[in-house]
Specification:
Distance between the termini: 52 Å
Number of domains: 2
Largest sheet: none
CATH architecture of the largest domain: Orthogonal Bundle
Mean pLDDT: 77
CATH topology of the largest domain: Rna Polymerase Sigma Factor, Chain: A
Shape: globular
Radius of gyration: 19 Å
Strand content: under 5%
Low-confidence stretches: 106-122
């Protein structure tokens, strides 16, 4: 098979990259991996809060992804990222199940969900304001009960639908929606109580 130039590969959809990889173009998988690795790794890190463990689980996730693709078991639906996120979430849950404790979904001092939100063409002042706002929001999210924090991260960080979150966390859609509603109520309450100004 003729290898597609990298500049052209960057324009391809995830589905096209997967098809090319299965036809023997190894570089297509590297493009797919580089496109999504930051979000997937960060989501794992948020759950386990240990860099070395997060790297190990990240490697396991992509071994499973490759294995599933090669066995022809991938049902694309155009949502590679959400599919990979489900695998990573389940691997994190399996890790904590083996360790006999529930994961605590908490942003940390060194890495948090808002780090990957990027806004182009900012001046220095906008960058500082955005950084301060994200820091305030991270601290507010950190104060939420575990189940509410979990749904906020999966919804706003992993871009998952409430249906996907419900399936992933093994609750009803109404429960997932309720947790998000209470999370937003709690965040608004905390903003008022602490007189926080969000730019």
């Amino acid at each position: 098979m003729q290898v597609t130039p990298l500049s052209d590969q960057l324009q391809l959809t995830d589905h096209d990259l997967i098809n090319r990889y299965l036809e023997g173009d190894e570089q297509s998988f590297e493009v797919l991996l580089s496109r999504h690795q930051q979000k997937i790794y960060t989501s794992i890190y948020l759950f386990v809060k240990d860099q070395s463990l997060a790297e190990d689980i990240f490697q396991e996730v992509f071994i499973k992804v490759i294995d599933t693709l090669r066995r022809g078991k991938y049902n694309h639906e155009g949502k590679f990222l959400q599919w990979a996120m489900r695998i990573s979430y389940n691997m994190c849950v399996d890790h904590f199940r083996r360790a006999k404790r529930r994961p605590q979904v908490t942003p940390t001092e060194t890495f948090d969900i808002f780090d990957v939100l990027q806004i182009s063409d900012e001046n220095a002042e906008q960058t500082i304001i955005r950084s301060q706002t994200h820091d305030k929001i991270r601290k507010l999210v950190d104060m939420l009960p575990d189940e509410q924090r979990e749904v906020v991260i999966l919804r706003h960080y992993a871009d998952m639908s409430f249906k996907e979150i419900a399936k992933l966390t093994r609750v009803s859609i109404n429960t997932a929606l309720g947790r998000m509603r209470y999370a937003l109520i709690n965040i608004r309450r905390l903003v008022e109580e602490k007189d926080i100004i969000l730019q």
